[in-house]
Amino acid sequence: MPDDLSLRVTPQPVRRQVEERLRDAIITSRFAPGEHLSDRMLCDLFGVSRGVIREAVRLLEAEGLIHVVPNRGPFVAYLSAAEATQVYEVRAVLEALAGQGFAERASAEEIAELRAVYEELAATRPGSDRLVLLGLKRRFYDVMLRGCRNAYVARMLDQLLNRNSQLRATTLSDPTRLPQTIIEIRRIVEAVERRDRDGAWEACRDHVMQAARVALRILNEQAAMASRAAETAAD
Amino acid sequence: MPDDLSLRVTPQPVRRQVEERLRDAIITSRFAPGEHLSDRMLCDLFGVSRGVIREAVRLLEAEGLIHVVPNRGPFVAYLSAAEATQVYEVRAVLEALAGQGFAERASAEEIAELRAVYEELAATRPGSDRLVLLGLKRRFYDVMLRGCRNAYVARMLDQLLNRNSQLRATTLSDPTRLPQTIIEIRRIVEAVERRDRDGAWEACRDHVMQAARVALRILNEQAAMASRAAETAAD
DNA sequence: GGGCCCAGGATTGACAGACAATTCTACAGG
DNA sequence: CCTGTAGAATTGTCTGTCAATCCTGGGCCC
Predict the structure, then answer these.
(1) What Å value separates CA A75 and C1' D24?
(2) Least confident of A3-12, A81-90, B44-53, B74-83
(3) Which residues of A touch B62 (CB under 8 A)?
């Protein structure tokens, strides 16, 4: 089996760069949900040919980040409240599995790395930028998904995290939520340090379920705000 | 929110057909794992242009069915024993979640449908063709993934089932395995009929874990056989 | 004013051809 | 037997073309 630390270099086609940058642009909300990503616009933006753009779009379509309407082209995927509920349901079990795997199989170095990222996260002050927080949390997951020694759970969780990154950025930067998040994550780190597979499972699962609660509350508030705005506009 | 029973018709681009047929060809082993899928060959085979082929390949790459090596093109993905273990680990929790969701949220019609597919499966005789069995089992999953009311678990499980369909076909058609499979599936159906969410979770999880045991045994046998063949060849 | 229809422009979906860069293949030479 | 290299084949990318479809805006009728 090839080692993950393999020194093999592989050329990176232009296509990959476009995939990565476009993915990143969507995740960091530089394109708004529902926005139309027309061929020509992306060609100009990235300075590549239509073929490359279309291939990248197909890949992100399969990842669920882009929704393609026949004869109308690609749009940035939009996550409804109902879908968000489903995403959190799946995330709960996948993160639990990842946490369990990490507790069982991560190296001592990886556990130390996880704690280091946790300490960094715990040291942030409430006013931090959404994207900074999201980036930190992302690093936490990167360590976790690497250490759980299961490329499939890593891939699928990665997709889910990207899919609802917008909502996650919102909940993370909620000032009342952040201290709670830090406590939950500490539980994960501590369970992992004890090599407690069931504890890690529970802590991860609990963390996602708490996040889901906050996310759905925010979604409801937004919906209420939107309907109130609609009423005002109708006056 | 758009109803799943929407009568809306959407045009099907050529691209989609190629995606579906190519996916199907890989799943049903009409292309062997590791086989090289060169542009020109696929162009001739499907009678479409390179652009369409390349877009379809990109989609199946994201689904994990195709592995792309830079400057060497796409290859049918190959599942190692280590990866198979990981796939079964993820499948176990996702199927458990799907089963639980089905027990909670499926309609009475869907539950009846699940039983109907089960009865059909239970009525097969041991000698049946691998692909026939795989198709039946697939219909079982189709009902389950529709009734669990979670599009994300459905999508991810769908990908995983495709990803190791070859191995599944092998284990399913193992004559000693089939009766056991049927018993396990009956447990799922019965739990669902009782609306027993925990029971459905356990039954689904157990089913996957049993399948994993058989699959890994077969993989080991194949490995042993291969090494024996290598010895013979070396004589 | 509101609704309907239609022409024109813009965009998507698909095709063919071209070309540099890379990889594979096979053959000759040490 | 190993090595090196020339030529063929393939990939990655770009450009241009064209039909089909969608959106827009204006004109027309009620």
Answers:
(1) 20
(2) A3-12
(3) 58-63
Q: What are the start-end ranges of the H helices in chain A?
A: 14-27, 39-46, 50-62, 81-105, 108-122, 130-147, 151-163, 165-172, 177-193, 197-234
DSSP characters over chain B:
---TT--------HHHHHHHHHHHHHHTTSS-TT-B--HHHHHHHHT--HHHHHHHHHHHHHTTSEEEETTTEEEE----HHHHHHHHHHHHHHHHHHHHHHHHH--HHHHHHHHHHHHHHHT--TT--HHHHHHHHHHHHHHHHHHTT-HHHHHHHHHHHHHTHHHHHHHHT-TTTHHHHHHHHHHHHHHHHTT-HHHHHHHHHHHHHHHHHHHHHHHHHHHHHHHHHHHHHH-
CB of A80 within 8 Å of a chain B CB? The answer is yes
Same domain, yes or no: A129 and A66: no
Last residue of a domain, one of B60, B76, B92: B76
Q: What is the spatial distance, in angstroms and rounded to an integer, between the CA atom of B230 and the C1' atom of D2?
A: 25
pLDDT for residue A22 = 97
B30 to chain A, any CB pair closer than 8 A? The answer is no
Contacts of B8 in chain A (CB under 8 A): none
pLDDT at B112 over 70: yes
Residue B9 lies in a domain: no
Q: What is the CATH number of the domain that holds B139?
A: 1.20.120.530
Per-chain mean pLDDT for chain B: 90
Range of the domain at A65: 14-76
Determine the pLDDT at residue A186: 97
Q: Do A101 and B82 touch (CB under 8 A)?
A: no
The residue-averaged pLDDT of A110-128 equals 91
User: Looking at the complex, does the CB of residue A103 fall below 8 Å from at least one CB of chain B?
Assistant: no
Q: Measured from the CB, is A30 under 7 Å from any atom of strand C?
A: no
